[in-house]
Amino acid sequence: ALRAGVAARHWPRAWPDYCGVLDSTIPLMSKLLLVDADEMVRRVTRRLLERAGHSVVEASDGTAALAALEADQPDVVVTDIIMPGMNGLELILEVHRRQPVLPVVAISGGAPSNGPDGILVVARDLGAAATFPKPLDMPALLATVGSLAHRALTA
Questions:
Q1: pTM of this prediction?
Q2: Which of 12, 55, 65, 131 is most buried by its number of CB atoms within 10 A?
Q3: b/e for 45-57, b at 16 or more Cβ within 10 A?
Q4: pLDDT per residue over 71-90, tens digit each?
């Protein structure tokens, strides 16, 4: 069953109900919180996520992400790890403290000393549902975000 109030906010108006019955095989549109200090990465990633049917709220750092988390109630958080101020690892911990079941996807180009795999392993250990090194494998990211969002919306 859908969470209360989700259907109206998440069903894309671009998909008409031709048969008079909503087709459960069509994915629900989710609200994503995208967190990355790099404006270009945010812009490109946002466009691709929106083309896949998601609604996207952006934040440039962990502190802004926490404000958006409360204001926008996202279904999935996608965050970079290396950011000024509150980094993505701290953000993962705080998101799970506030909303334990909210899925977080961690992305990173890595720290100079340990590369993307090392820091992403730490992110997974801290509770990230999935991790992706930069440059992003966009088809894999879209599939993962879609799957996590579907689970969140139908839980």
A1: 0.80
A2: 65
A3: bbebbeebbbbbb
A4: 999 999 999 999 999 999 99
- If phi > 0 it is left, if psi is from -120 to 50 it is alpha, else beta; for residue 73 that is left
What tokens were used for 43? 């812009």
Report which of 41, 153, 123 is spatially closest to residue 131, judged by C-alpha positions.
Answer: 123
53: left (phi over 0), alpha (psi -120 to 50) or beta: left
Write the DSSP string, 116-132: HHHHHHHHHHTT-SEEE
Nearest to 63 by CA among 32, 98, 88: 88
pLDDT attached to residue 15 = 35
What is the C-alpha separation between 74 and 16, in angstroms, rounded?
Answer: 24
Q: Is the pLDDT of residue 61 over 60?
A: yes
